[in-house]
Amino acid sequence: MTDPQLDKRVRNAVKFFWSTRAEQARRQGSGSGTKDAGARAAVTGGAQMDGFVRFVRDLLYESGLPLGAVHHNGRIEIPGWYRSEKRWDLLVILEGRLIAAIEFKSQIGPSFGNNFNNRTEEAIGSASDLWAAYREGAFKPSARPWLGYLMMLEECAASTKSVRSWEPYFRVFPEFVGSSYKQRYEILLTKLVRERLYDAGCLILSNSKTGPEGVYQEPSEELSFQNFVTSLLGRAKATEGNPMKNSGLGQESPLPQAPTVIICREIWF
User: Fold this and answer.
1) Listed residue (199, 253, 200) closest to 224, CA to CA
2) Which end of the chain, N or C, is more open, meaning fewer C-beta atoms within 10 Å of its C-beta?
């Protein structure tokens, strides 16, 4: 069961997402008088996920991480292996060691197909690039860093309907047959975690009607926000030299221990 205080703050981040999106759509093109076509007006502005970024930052600081250890504005580049550097949405760097790197992404309709493929390639590529750089000693003297991926997806007819798989030569894996983009994101994030490309993933769904009120859904307990931050705070607490006193949400609202998840290689949806 999700901690009530945690749930309240997730709802606030969801509200921030939709309010920021609406404001960006209203302002887009106000100077030139020309707005981007369709939903692109709200997408090109960015910053909708800042509510989640700041929320995770606050959880880390409330748990005792020293001020200045969390970076999400300005200098957020770290070396890559296949490219010179990569900007992450949030970094935790303590005493010269890379503790964690997190991506915060969102997808709003109507173009789910191409955007899903782009998000998939980005997620796999960013993780592969980081682990290759780590293998080659780019982050010395860091131990293995914690990697996280949080996705906010619009829940609507286009994201929840069955999508055809194209199989001109070979069959796709059975879990994709008849799946929606909502299910495909769940499959993607689950596989990213189970293949150890990311230490934790989070999938949050919200629609444009009730989202501005903070309403959201979590289709998978394994990909819940509570599981996500429990894993992150646990890693931060275990870091040598970190003065964190506990791994919860601060003294006012301790974070319950996440349930043990048994990992298997087969995924059923």
Assistant:
1) 200
2) N
